[in-house]
Amino acid sequence: MPKHYLMCRPDFFAVEYAINPWMDPDAGADREVAVRQWEGLKAAYEELGHQVSLIDPIEGLPDMVFAANGALVAGGRVYGARFAFPERAAEGPAYLRWFSERGYPTHEPVHVNEGEGDFLAMDEVILAGTGFRTSREAHNEAQEFLGRPVVSLQLVDPRFYHLDTALFPLHGRNIAYYPGAFSEGSRSVLRRMFPDAVIAGADDAEVLGLNAVSDGRNIVINSEAHDLQLDLKRRGYEVIPVELGELRKAGGGPKCCTLEIRGEN
Ligand code: ARG
């Protein structure tokens, strides 16, 4: 089944403030390299037969390339983002406008949440992270607007500040994750819900290997996540490694650059 993704070209990408431990404004980042790597990610999706739509980047919003944070879309309904840090605040309305202009039913959020960075939609439930960015109140707000059960998970390691830096759905009913990013209680929840999950180690997590995108068959993943790639291949997945090192300097990987537009169902 082809997917529909929304992406944002990193034309104004930079590391000029630090809102997560990956970001070092003194070291900065090379925008040209970032654009080239991002083009590679977009091409990988298109080669897999997926549709990529684009939102115009806005000058002065260097993190807007991380489209996953722009909203949560499920069943064709769009729950908007409300960013935790003022540096990214203007991205929320920009992404919401993109959807409302195209006729999607949208909800302007009351509570702080960073879209698909912290919400991962599966067949029966939506997994939701909290601890660094998205608030628990937003988990309730999303559940009410989308009419789907939301399961709250507590993040405890600042390097894994969004749920999508530590966990990704392999398909609608199973996941891969790095246990070290979660509280004891949330680890138990994950073990109960997903006894057959792929468990990643620290080496793969530390190169943002869990920030991957699966269409159920093909998995687009940071090239440096070696062990995880082997595990996934052993499980029968097609692995598509991508090089996104420049965007990792802002704390992002393939999933961060990708907002899935999920239609009616
Ligand atoms: N610099 C961005 C931030 O800290 C990176 C966002 C990464 N996005 C994600 N979905 N994990 O907000």
Explain how this protein is built.
There is one protein chain. With about 260 residues, this protein is α/β, with parallel strands linked by helices. The longest helix has 17 residues, at about 30-45. The strands form 5 sheets. The protein has a 3-stranded mixed β-sheet with strand order 2-1-15, covered by helices on one side. It has a single domain, classed as L-arginine/glycine Amidinotransferase, Chain A (5-stranded Propeller), CATH 3.75.10.10. The protein has helices spanning about 30-45, 90-100, 135-145, 185-195, 200-205, 225-235, 245-250, and strands at about 5, 50-55, 70-75, 75-80, 105, 120, 125-130, 150-155, 165-170, 175, 200, 215, 220, 240, 260. It is globular.
Summarize the structure.
This protein has 7 helices and 15 strands.
**Number of domain modules:** 1
Q: From the coordinates shown, what is the CATH architecture?
A: 5-stranded Propeller
Strand and helix order: EHEEEHEEEHEEEHEHEEHEHE
Find the count of extended strands (DSSP E, 2+ residues). Answer: 15
The profile of the biggest β sheet is: 3 strands, mixed
> What proportion of the residues form beta strands (DSSP E)?
15-25%
Enzyme class: hydrolase
GO molecular function, one term: dimethylargininase activity
EC number: 3.5.3.18
Keywords: Hydrolase
